[in-house]
Amino acid sequence: MRARWLGWTGLEVSPLGMGCWAIGGPTEFRGSQFGWGQVDESEAIRAIQAGLDGGITFIDTADIYGTGHSERIVGRALAGRRDGVVVATKFGLTFDEYSGTMTGRDASPAYIRQACEASLRRLGTDYIDLYQFHVGGYDPAAVDPVLDVLDELVAAGKIRYYAWGTGLEGALRFVERGHCPSVQFGLNLLTMVFPEADRMLAFCDAHDLAAIINGPLGKGLLTGKFDQATRFAEGDLRRQRGWDVQDGPLAVGRRVVEQLRDILTSDGRTLAQAALGALWARSPRCLPIPGFKTVAQVHENVGALEYGPLSPQQMRAVADLVTASFTEEEAQSL
User: Distance from the CA of 201 to the CA of which of 7, 70, 216, 233 falls in 20 to 30 A?
Assistant: First the structure.
Protein backbone atom coordinates (compact mmCIF):
# COMPACT_ATOMS: atom_id res chain seq x y z
CA MET A 1 0.00 0.00 0.00
CA ARG A 2 1.16 3.50 -0.80
CA ALA A 3 1.64 6.30 1.68
CA ARG A 4 -1.18 8.82 2.02
CA TRP A 5 -1.75 12.34 3.27
CA LEU A 6 -2.71 13.27 6.82
CA GLY A 7 -6.04 14.79 5.84
CA TRP A 8 -5.67 17.99 3.82
CA THR A 9 -2.14 18.77 5.02
CA GLY A 10 0.09 17.25 2.35
CA LEU A 11 1.97 15.63 5.24
CA GLU A 12 2.76 12.08 4.13
CA VAL A 13 2.04 9.18 6.48
CA SER A 14 2.00 5.41 6.16
CA PRO A 15 -1.48 3.80 5.84
CA LEU A 16 -0.83 2.09 9.19
CA GLY A 17 0.36 3.62 12.43
CA MET A 18 1.49 2.35 15.81
CA GLY A 19 -0.73 2.96 18.82
CA CYS A 20 1.37 3.34 21.96
CA TRP A 21 -1.16 2.98 24.79
CA ALA A 22 -0.20 -0.59 25.70
CA ILE A 23 3.53 0.13 25.98
CA GLY A 24 2.88 2.75 28.65
CA GLY A 25 2.35 0.07 31.27
CA PRO A 26 0.04 0.26 34.30
CA THR A 27 -1.97 3.40 34.98
CA GLU A 28 -4.34 3.80 37.91
CA PHE A 29 -7.38 5.99 38.46
CA ARG A 30 -9.53 5.78 41.59
CA GLY A 31 -8.39 2.27 42.35
CA SER A 32 -8.93 0.90 38.83
CA GLN A 33 -6.37 0.13 36.15
CA PHE A 34 -6.75 1.45 32.62
CA GLY A 35 -3.42 0.32 31.25
CA TRP A 36 -2.47 -2.99 29.68
CA GLY A 37 -0.30 -4.51 32.37
CA GLN A 38 3.46 -4.63 32.71
CA VAL A 39 5.66 -3.81 29.74
CA ASP A 40 9.22 -4.71 28.77
CA GLU A 41 10.66 -1.31 27.87
CA SER A 42 13.55 -2.68 25.80
CA GLU A 43 11.18 -4.89 23.80
CA ALA A 44 8.84 -1.93 23.24
CA ILE A 45 11.69 0.17 21.87
CA ARG A 46 12.74 -2.65 19.54
CA ALA A 47 9.13 -3.03 18.45
CA ILE A 48 8.83 0.64 17.49
CA GLN A 49 12.09 0.46 15.58
CA ALA A 50 10.87 -2.69 13.80
CA GLY A 51 7.81 -0.75 12.71
CA LEU A 52 9.95 2.09 11.39
CA ASP A 53 12.11 -0.41 9.52
CA GLY A 54 8.92 -1.88 8.03
CA GLY A 55 7.78 1.47 6.66
CA ILE A 56 5.60 2.84 9.47
CA THR A 57 5.87 6.63 9.69
CA PHE A 58 2.97 7.48 12.05
CA ILE A 59 3.11 7.02 15.83
CA ASP A 60 0.25 7.86 18.18
CA THR A 61 0.72 8.18 21.94
CA ALA A 62 -0.57 10.30 24.84
CA ASP A 63 0.94 11.86 27.93
CA ILE A 64 -1.45 9.85 30.14
CA TYR A 65 -0.33 6.45 28.77
CA GLY A 66 1.70 5.08 31.65
CA THR A 67 1.68 8.65 33.03
CA GLY A 68 4.48 9.70 30.70
CA HIS A 69 6.13 6.31 30.27
CA SER A 70 4.84 5.74 26.72
CA GLU A 71 6.12 9.12 25.54
CA ARG A 72 9.54 8.44 27.05
CA ILE A 73 9.73 5.07 25.28
CA VAL A 74 8.73 6.66 21.98
CA GLY A 75 11.35 9.36 22.44
CA ARG A 76 14.07 6.79 23.05
CA ALA A 77 12.98 4.69 20.07
CA LEU A 78 13.02 7.71 17.75
CA ALA A 79 16.47 8.94 18.73
CA GLY A 80 18.24 9.77 15.47
CA ARG A 81 15.12 8.99 13.39
CA ARG A 82 12.69 11.74 14.42
CA ASP A 83 12.62 13.56 11.06
CA GLY A 84 11.13 10.59 9.22
CA VAL A 85 8.19 10.11 11.58
CA VAL A 86 4.89 11.93 12.17
CA VAL A 87 4.36 11.95 15.94
CA ALA A 88 0.92 12.44 17.48
CA THR A 89 0.30 12.76 21.20
CA LYS A 90 -2.56 13.93 23.42
CA PHE A 91 -3.24 16.22 26.36
CA GLY A 92 -5.94 17.14 28.87
CA LEU A 93 -5.77 14.37 31.48
CA THR A 94 -3.73 15.10 34.60
CA PHE A 95 -1.52 12.67 36.49
CA ASP A 96 1.27 12.08 38.94
CA GLU A 97 4.08 10.91 36.71
CA TYR A 98 5.94 9.04 39.44
CA SER A 99 3.13 7.13 41.14
CA GLY A 100 1.46 6.11 37.86
CA THR A 101 -1.84 7.64 38.93
CA MET A 102 -4.27 9.72 36.90
CA THR A 103 -5.63 12.61 38.96
CA GLY A 104 -8.29 14.21 36.75
CA ARG A 105 -8.49 16.57 33.80
CA ASP A 106 -7.45 20.12 33.01
CA ALA A 107 -8.12 22.10 29.84
CA SER A 108 -6.94 25.49 31.09
CA PRO A 109 -4.55 27.41 28.81
CA ALA A 110 -1.83 27.37 31.48
CA TYR A 111 -2.05 23.62 31.87
CA ILE A 112 -2.04 23.01 28.11
CA ARG A 113 1.16 25.01 27.74
CA GLN A 114 2.71 23.08 30.63
CA ALA A 115 1.58 19.72 29.24
CA CYS A 116 2.96 20.52 25.79
CA GLU A 117 6.39 21.39 27.18
CA ALA A 118 6.41 18.20 29.26
CA SER A 119 5.51 16.06 26.22
CA LEU A 120 8.23 17.71 24.17
CA ARG A 121 10.78 16.82 26.85
CA ARG A 122 9.64 13.21 27.18
CA LEU A 123 9.53 12.72 23.40
CA GLY A 124 12.96 14.30 22.96
CA THR A 125 11.75 16.62 20.21
CA ASP A 126 11.25 20.33 19.67
CA TYR A 127 7.88 19.98 17.90
CA ILE A 128 4.82 17.73 17.92
CA ASP A 129 3.24 17.00 14.56
CA LEU A 130 -0.32 16.40 15.82
CA TYR A 131 -1.52 17.46 19.29
CA GLN A 132 -4.87 15.89 20.19
CA PHE A 133 -7.39 16.97 22.83
CA HIS A 134 -7.95 13.92 25.05
CA VAL A 135 -10.87 14.99 27.26
CA GLY A 136 -14.01 13.06 26.39
CA GLY A 137 -17.38 14.70 27.00
CA TYR A 138 -15.96 18.23 26.98
CA ASP A 139 -18.55 20.90 26.14
CA PRO A 140 -17.87 22.07 22.56
CA ALA A 141 -19.35 25.47 23.43
CA ALA A 142 -16.56 26.01 25.96
CA VAL A 143 -13.66 25.00 23.76
CA ASP A 144 -12.55 28.41 22.42
CA PRO A 145 -9.89 28.98 25.15
CA VAL A 146 -8.45 25.55 24.29
CA LEU A 147 -8.31 26.45 20.63
CA ASP A 148 -6.78 29.86 21.32
CA VAL A 149 -3.82 28.36 23.18
CA LEU A 150 -3.40 25.66 20.53
CA ASP A 151 -3.22 28.37 17.86
CA GLU A 152 -0.52 30.04 19.99
CA LEU A 153 1.44 26.78 20.11
CA VAL A 154 1.20 26.45 16.32
CA ALA A 155 2.46 30.01 15.88
CA ALA A 156 5.34 29.29 18.25
CA GLY A 157 6.35 26.17 16.30
CA LYS A 158 5.71 23.85 19.26
CA ILE A 159 3.03 21.91 17.36
CA ARG A 160 2.24 21.67 13.65
CA TYR A 161 -1.44 20.66 13.79
CA TYR A 162 -4.03 19.83 16.42
CA ALA A 163 -7.18 17.73 16.57
CA TRP A 164 -10.13 16.62 18.63
CA GLY A 165 -9.01 13.20 19.82
CA THR A 166 -12.11 11.55 21.32
CA GLY A 167 -14.82 11.08 18.68
CA LEU A 168 -16.83 13.77 16.90
CA GLU A 169 -18.43 15.78 19.73
CA GLY A 170 -16.36 18.92 19.32
CA ALA A 171 -14.52 18.09 16.13
CA LEU A 172 -16.30 20.73 14.03
CA ARG A 173 -15.13 23.53 16.33
CA PHE A 174 -11.55 22.33 15.84
CA VAL A 175 -11.96 22.01 12.07
CA GLU A 176 -13.25 25.57 11.79
CA ARG A 177 -9.95 26.97 13.12
CA GLY A 178 -8.02 25.68 10.10
CA HIS A 179 -5.32 23.63 11.85
CA CYS A 180 -7.20 20.34 12.35
CA PRO A 181 -6.49 17.61 9.74
CA SER A 182 -7.88 14.57 11.56
CA VAL A 183 -10.26 13.10 14.08
CA GLN A 184 -9.66 10.00 16.18
CA PHE A 185 -12.28 7.44 17.11
CA GLY A 186 -12.73 3.72 17.67
CA LEU A 187 -13.74 1.45 14.80
CA ASN A 188 -13.19 -2.18 13.93
CA LEU A 189 -14.40 -5.05 11.80
CA LEU A 190 -17.40 -5.64 14.10
CA THR A 191 -18.56 -2.01 14.33
CA MET A 192 -17.78 -0.64 10.86
CA VAL A 193 -20.96 -2.07 9.29
CA PHE A 194 -23.36 -0.03 11.45
CA PRO A 195 -24.80 3.49 10.84
CA GLU A 196 -22.57 5.27 13.36
CA ALA A 197 -19.53 4.40 11.25
CA ASP A 198 -21.22 5.99 8.23
CA ARG A 199 -21.73 9.21 10.20
CA MET A 200 -18.13 9.40 11.41
CA LEU A 201 -16.58 8.63 8.04
CA ALA A 202 -18.95 11.02 6.24
CA PHE A 203 -17.72 13.79 8.55
CA CYS A 204 -14.13 13.00 7.54
CA ASP A 205 -15.10 13.03 3.86
CA ALA A 206 -16.90 16.36 4.20
CA HIS A 207 -13.90 18.07 5.80
CA ASP A 208 -11.04 16.16 4.13
CA LEU A 209 -9.83 14.66 7.40
CA ALA A 210 -7.81 11.57 8.22
CA ALA A 211 -9.76 9.07 10.34
CA ILE A 212 -7.27 7.88 12.96
CA ILE A 213 -8.72 4.56 14.11
CA ASN A 214 -8.01 3.33 17.62
CA GLY A 215 -8.93 -0.17 18.76
CA PRO A 216 -8.78 -1.65 15.23
CA LEU A 217 -8.12 -5.15 16.63
CA GLY A 218 -10.97 -5.01 19.14
CA LYS A 219 -8.63 -5.09 22.17
CA GLY A 220 -7.18 -8.33 20.80
CA LEU A 221 -10.48 -10.06 20.03
CA LEU A 222 -10.01 -9.76 16.26
CA THR A 223 -6.64 -11.47 16.29
CA GLY A 224 -8.45 -14.78 16.85
CA LYS A 225 -6.08 -15.63 19.69
CA PHE A 226 -8.65 -15.74 22.50
CA ASP A 227 -9.99 -19.13 23.54
CA GLN A 228 -11.82 -20.71 26.47
CA ALA A 229 -8.67 -20.58 28.58
CA THR A 230 -7.98 -16.87 28.03
CA ARG A 231 -7.59 -14.85 31.22
CA PHE A 232 -6.33 -11.30 31.55
CA ALA A 233 -3.54 -10.31 33.92
CA GLU A 234 -3.71 -7.98 36.88
CA GLY A 235 -3.31 -4.41 35.68
CA ASP A 236 -4.92 -5.20 32.31
CA LEU A 237 -7.93 -2.98 31.67
CA ARG A 238 -9.78 -5.89 30.05
CA ARG A 239 -9.80 -7.64 33.42
CA GLN A 240 -10.87 -4.43 35.17
CA ARG A 241 -13.77 -4.04 32.75
CA GLY A 242 -14.97 -7.59 33.33
CA TRP A 243 -14.18 -8.98 29.91
CA ASP A 244 -15.33 -12.59 29.79
CA VAL A 245 -14.49 -14.56 26.66
CA GLN A 246 -16.86 -17.33 27.74
CA ASP A 247 -20.06 -15.29 28.06
CA GLY A 248 -22.04 -12.36 26.63
CA PRO A 249 -21.18 -10.21 23.56
CA LEU A 250 -17.49 -11.07 23.83
CA ALA A 251 -18.23 -14.78 23.52
CA VAL A 252 -20.46 -14.06 20.52
CA GLY A 253 -17.71 -11.94 19.00
CA ARG A 254 -15.22 -14.76 19.44
CA ARG A 255 -17.58 -17.15 17.62
CA VAL A 256 -18.12 -14.63 14.81
CA VAL A 257 -14.37 -14.27 14.36
CA GLU A 258 -14.01 -18.04 14.15
CA GLN A 259 -16.82 -18.26 11.58
CA LEU A 260 -15.07 -15.63 9.47
CA ARG A 261 -11.60 -17.13 9.83
CA ASP A 262 -11.55 -19.16 6.60
CA ILE A 263 -13.01 -16.32 4.52
CA LEU A 264 -10.68 -13.67 5.89
CA THR A 265 -7.50 -15.75 5.75
CA SER A 266 -8.15 -17.44 2.39
CA ASP A 267 -5.64 -15.15 0.65
CA GLY A 268 -2.85 -15.90 3.15
CA ARG A 269 -3.26 -13.05 5.63
CA THR A 270 -3.77 -13.56 9.35
CA LEU A 271 -6.94 -12.54 11.16
CA ALA A 272 -5.23 -9.47 12.61
CA GLN A 273 -4.08 -8.46 9.13
CA ALA A 274 -7.62 -9.00 7.85
CA ALA A 275 -9.04 -6.75 10.58
CA LEU A 276 -6.72 -3.96 9.41
CA GLY A 277 -7.52 -4.65 5.77
CA ALA A 278 -11.24 -4.35 6.54
CA LEU A 279 -10.75 -0.77 7.69
CA TRP A 280 -8.81 0.18 4.56
CA ALA A 281 -11.60 -1.35 2.48
CA ARG A 282 -14.22 0.53 4.51
CA SER A 283 -12.63 3.91 3.73
CA PRO A 284 -9.30 5.06 2.29
CA ARG A 285 -9.33 7.74 5.01
CA CYS A 286 -8.87 5.11 7.74
CA LEU A 287 -5.48 5.19 9.43
CA PRO A 288 -5.57 2.31 11.97
CA ILE A 289 -3.20 2.48 14.93
CA PRO A 290 -3.10 -1.04 16.43
CA GLY A 291 -1.49 -1.41 19.82
CA PHE A 292 1.48 -3.67 20.51
CA LYS A 293 3.92 -4.80 23.16
CA THR A 294 6.26 -7.03 21.17
CA VAL A 295 8.33 -7.06 18.00
CA ALA A 296 6.32 -10.05 16.76
CA GLN A 297 3.04 -8.13 17.04
CA VAL A 298 4.46 -5.21 15.08
CA HIS A 299 5.82 -7.52 12.37
CA GLU A 300 2.37 -9.07 11.99
CA ASN A 301 0.68 -5.67 11.80
CA VAL A 302 3.20 -4.37 9.25
CA GLY A 303 2.58 -7.49 7.18
CA ALA A 304 -0.97 -6.29 6.57
CA LEU A 305 0.45 -3.66 4.21
CA GLU A 306 1.44 -6.41 1.77
CA TYR A 307 -2.17 -7.57 1.47
CA GLY A 308 -3.99 -4.23 1.53
CA PRO A 309 -7.78 -3.87 1.72
CA LEU A 310 -10.13 -6.82 1.94
CA SER A 311 -11.97 -7.77 -1.23
CA PRO A 312 -15.63 -6.79 -1.81
CA GLN A 313 -16.58 -10.44 -1.33
CA GLN A 314 -14.83 -10.59 2.04
CA MET A 315 -16.46 -7.33 3.10
CA ARG A 316 -19.93 -8.63 2.20
CA ALA A 317 -19.33 -11.78 4.23
CA VAL A 318 -18.31 -9.68 7.23
CA ALA A 319 -21.36 -7.42 6.95
CA ASP A 320 -23.80 -10.31 6.58
CA LEU A 321 -22.50 -12.26 9.57
CA VAL A 322 -21.95 -9.29 11.89
CA THR A 323 -25.39 -7.75 11.35
CA ALA A 324 -27.00 -11.17 11.85
CA SER A 325 -25.08 -11.68 15.12
CA PHE A 326 -25.10 -8.28 16.89
CA THR A 327 -27.07 -5.16 17.47
CA GLU A 328 -25.03 -1.99 17.04
CA GLU A 329 -25.06 -1.45 20.82
CA GLU A 330 -23.68 -4.95 21.45
CA ALA A 331 -20.94 -4.52 18.85
CA GLN A 332 -19.94 -1.14 20.36
CA SER A 333 -19.50 -2.78 23.77
CA LEU A 334 -16.60 -4.88 22.50
Answer: 70
Q: Give the CATH number of the domain where residue 78 resides.
A: 3.20.20.100
**Alpha carbons 314 and 266: distance in angstroms, whole number:** 10
Residue 293 · residue 47 · CB < 8 Å: yes
Residue tagged active-site, from 65, 131, 138, 161 = 65
H helix or E strand, kind and range, residue 13: strand 12-13
272-330 confidence digits (pLDDT tens): 999 999 999 999 999 999 999 999 999 999 999 999 999 999 999 999 999 999 899 88
Are 112 and 149 within 8 A, CB to CB?
A: yes
| Number of domain units in the chain | 1
Q: Are 71 and 65 in contact (CB under 8 A)?
A: yes
pTM for this prediction = 0.96
What does DSSP assign to residue 100?
T
Query: Is residue 164 within 8 Å of residue 194, measured between CB atoms?
Result: no
Range of the domain at 156: 4-332
Give pLDDT tens digits for 57-86: 999 999 999 999 999 999 999 999 999 999
Query: Is 138 among the residues known to form the active site?
Result: no
